[in-house]
Design a protein that fits this description.
The protein is α/β, with parallel strands linked by helices. The protein has a domain at 1-101. 27% of the residues lie in helices and 19% in strands. It has helices spanning 15-26, 93-96, 128-132, 142-145, 165-175, 192-200, 218-227, 248-260, 282-292, 294-299; strands spanning 2-7, 30-33, 42-46, 66-69, 75-78, 81-84, 111-113, 116-117, 137-138, 151-154, 178-181, 206-210, 236-242, 269-274. The strands form five sheets. A four-stranded parallel beta sheet has the order 2-1-3-4, covered by helices on one side. A three-stranded parallel beta sheet has the order 7-10-11, with no helix packed on it. Strands 12-13-14 form a three-stranded parallel beta sheet. Helix 7 (218-227) links the parallel strand 12 (206-210) and strand 13 (236-242). Helix 5 (165-175) runs parallel beside helix 6 (192-200). The longest helix has 13 residues, at 248-260.
Length: 311
C-alpha cells in the first residue's frame, strides 16, 4: 500500500503518525508525508487543534480512504466552553506500543512519548479526563520509545498522580537525558520524596500551572521554591489561566504571588494563558501582553501602572 500522513501540528512531531509510519513500514508499505499531487491507498489525518482547517479543506486529497483521528476532530466549542464529542478511536495495541519512526521528522532529535496517561483532576477547561480517564496510569516503559536520545520530551498530563511515579522518575534519572516535562507538573502533588527525585533529573526548566483561581496554591509553590533544585526564576515557569472563572483581582493575585514568593522577583515566572482568546475582553489581552513580554514585565511592576499606548 501507498500511505500518506498529514497533521495540523506543523511545529511539533506527530507521535501517532510516527507510530503508524513504523508499523506500515514494518509490513512493507510505502509511507510518506502527504503530497497532494500523489494518489494514496490510505491517508491518515491527525488533528490536534479544533480551530485549524482539515486536510481536505485546503485542496483535493487523492486517496481511496482517509482515516481521521486526534483531539481536533472531537473538541467542540459550545456556549464558550470546550466539550468532547464522540470517541477517538485508539491505535491498535501493536501500533500503540511500536518504536516510533523518528526518521519521519529528521529535524527532531528528541525521544517523544508518554509514560502515563490520564489525570484525576477533571478540570472543566481540560479534555484529558474525557479523553484518557480520571486516573493517571502507567501506559509504557521508557525503553519502549527511547533508546539513546540525549533529550526526552515527556507528554504525560500528570505523571505525579500516577501510583508508580517515583519508579518512573527514577528511570528518567538513570537515562541521564535532558527531560522536558512538556505538559507541566502538578505542584499540589510535590512532596519530600518526589522533589528529591525531581531534583536529580536533568531539566533545563520546570513548568507548573495555577489554573484554578479559587484554589490558593501559595504554600505549595513556596514549598517547591524552597526545596526545588532549580532556583532561577526564569527557569521556573507557571501557566496562569485567565478568562475562565476568574476575576481580574484573582488573576493579579496569582501573578504577583508567583513572582514574589521567596522575596521580590525571586519566585516563579508567570505566563498568562487565555481561555477562548477570540472572545476575551481587551483587559485580559493587555494583561497577557504585560506579563508575557518580560521586558515590559520587568520594567513595570504592576499591571495597574501599565499603559499600552506608551509602549
Amino acid at each position: 500500500m501507498r500511505i500518506g500522513l498529514w497533521s495540523d501540528a506543523h511545529n511539533f512531531p506527530g507521535l501517532p503518525l510516527m507510530k503508524l509510519s513504523a508499523y506500515h513500514k514494518s509490513i512493507g508499505d510505502q509511507v510518506e508525508m502527504l503530497n497532494h499531487l500523489q494518489h494514496y491507498d490510505r491517508v491518515y489525518a491527525s488533528k490536534t487543534f479544533n480551530f485549524t482547517e482539515d486536510l481536505d479543506e485546503r485542496c483535493v486529497v487523492q486517496a481511496d480512504e482517509i482515516v481521521r483521528g486526534g483531539s481536533g476532530y472531537h473538541i467542540k466549542m459550545v456556549d464558550g466552553r470546550e466539550t468532547w464529542e464522540g470517541e477517538d478511536e485508539p491505535l491498535p495495541k501493536e501500533i500503540e506500543h511500536i518504536y516510533p519512526d523518528y526518521g519521519l521528522y529528521p529535524e527532531n532529535k528528541d525521544a517523544i512519548g508518554f509514560l502515563t496517561r490520564g489525570c484525576p483532576r477533571g478540570c472543566g477547561f481540560c479534555i484529558v479526563a474525557c479523553k484518557e480517564g480520571r486516573a493517571s496510569r502507567q501506559v509504557a516503559e521508557l525503553s519502549e520509545w527511547r533508546h539513546e536520545q540525549k533529550h526526552i520530551t515527556l507528554l504525560d498530563p500528570n505523571i505525579l498522580a500516577c501510583r508508580e511515579h517515583e519508579r518512573l522518575l527514577q528511570e528518567l534519572i538513570e537515562s541521564r537525558a535532558w527531560v522536558d516535562f512538556s505538559q507541566g507538573l502538578d505542584v499540589r502533588l510535590v512532596n519530600a520524596d518526589n522533589v528529591r527525585l525531581l531534583n536529580e533529573i536533568k531539566t533545563k526548566m520546570v513548568h507548573f500551572a495555577w489554573d484554578d483561581a479559587k484554589t490558593d496554591l501559595r504554600d505549595q509553590f513556596a514549598y517547591y521554591a524552597k526545596h526545588g533544585a532549580i532556583t532561577d526564576p526564569r527557569r521556573r515557569c507557571v501557566y496562569v489561566l485567565t478568562n475562565y472563572n476568574s476575576t481580574m483581582e484573582e488573576n493579579l493575585y496569582r501573578i504577583y504571588t508567583l513572582r514574589d514568593i521567596g522575596g521580590y522577583r525571586k519566585g516563579f515566572n508567570p505566563y498568562v494563558m487565555i481561555y477562548d482568546k477570540a472572545h476575551a475582553p481587551r483587559e485580559i489581552r493587555l494583561l497577557q501582553r504585560w506579563c508575557n513580554n518580560k521586558r515590559i514585565f520587568k520594567t513595570i511592576d504592576r499591571f495597574e501602572d501599565y499603559d499600552q499606548r506608551k509602549g
